[in-house]
Write a sequence for this structure.
């Protein structure tokens, strides 16, 4: 969108807490605060001024988010077709009543780039890099363990993170445990079980800011994390990662198929791509099949530091 509209203001409607992350992409001018309980669609957007020239529905494939944008009366509305609404998107460049079809088996990156491309806006799903932040990391070259996630279904047990931390420490590797907002207790638990000093927990008591976490990951040797936000941030920064999956397949939410990333997943034979509840309270049974030994082996399989463990600044204006 930035490349297609270089002289326009690009506004992202999203929770206000994501403003710093949105700015880091270099592709968003401001965030319009918008959220609802339970990841729902807000009743209205607090938009002021003339209608937007273009609105893009990035929330999913349901009528509520599209209708929310339609009430702004944009010049163009870019969205996927949906069988439960007659208000299919229409633009000057496409025939009335036509829109691209939603695919349940499509990776998020490819899905949204396909949407834009269908409407004549070239988009590359592999253009993921963002510029590394300026602040120095308090733990350069460390292996970062991030045990938190916003749902229990995607949280690998603290004791297993601790086992990995203890094994890495015994090998002479520097290890830190990071905590986002509300995750300090979990991070301290991992450190205590692993016998790590309090100084190796980053983010206590209030949690790292986006900028703080980005600085740590940009200069990290590698990241071990569940299927949650910091995994995507590591991808955007070019940091090697081992990502642990349970209720949702890496094919839908995983990192790019590059040697610097390892996605671990043990589904049942013939399992669908979403075999569990991504927002469930208890660790998904597929996630629990991943062992500390497997994680250590995956870390060992990452490229040598000289080959790939030094993230470079991304191109100006690159997006996640």
């Amino acid at each position: 969108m930035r490349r297609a509209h270089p002289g326009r203001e690009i506004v992202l409607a999203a929770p206000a807490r994501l403003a710093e992350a949105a700015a880091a992409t270099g592709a968003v001018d401001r965030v319009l605060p918008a959220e609802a309980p339970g990841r729902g669609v807000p009743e209205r957007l607090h938009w002021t001024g003339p209608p937007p020239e273009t609105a893009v529905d990035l929330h999913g494939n349901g009528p509520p988010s599209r209708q929310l944008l339609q009430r702004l009366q944009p010049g163009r509305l870019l969205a996927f077709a949906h069988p439960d609404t007659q208000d299919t998107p229409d633009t000057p460049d496409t025939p009335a009543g036509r829109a691209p079809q939603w695919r349940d088996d499509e990776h998020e990156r490819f899905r949204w780039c396909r949407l834009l491309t269908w409407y004549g806006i070239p988009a590359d799903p592999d253009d993921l890099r963002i510029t590394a932040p300026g602040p120095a990391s308090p733990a350069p070259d460390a292996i970062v363990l991030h045990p938190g996630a916003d749902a229990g279904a995607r949280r690998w047990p603290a004791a297993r993170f601790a086992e990995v931390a203890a094994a890495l420490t015994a090998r002479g590797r520097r290890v830190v445990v990071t905590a986002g907002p509300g995750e300090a207790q979990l991070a301290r638990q991992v450190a205590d079980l692993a016998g790590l000093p309090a100084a190796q927990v980053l983010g206590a008591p209030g949690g790292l800011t986006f900028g703080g976490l980005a600085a740590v990951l940009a200069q990290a040797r590698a990241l071990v994390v569940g299927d949650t936000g910091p995994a995507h941030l590591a991808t955007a920064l070019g940091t090697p990662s081992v990502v642990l999956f349970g209720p949702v397949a890496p094919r839908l939410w995983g990192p790019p198929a590059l040697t610097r990333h390892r996605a671990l997943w043990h589904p049942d034979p013939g399992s669908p791509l979403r075999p569990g509840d991504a927002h469930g309270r208890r660790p998904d049974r597929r996630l629990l099949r991943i062992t500390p030994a497997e994680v250590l082996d995956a870390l060992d399989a990452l490229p040598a530091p000289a080959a790939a463990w030094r993230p470079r600044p991304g191109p100006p204006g690159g997006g996640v």
In short: The beta strands are 11-14, 30-33, 54-56, 76-78, 143-146, 175-178, 201-202, 222-226, 241-244, 261-264. The radius of gyration is 21 Å.
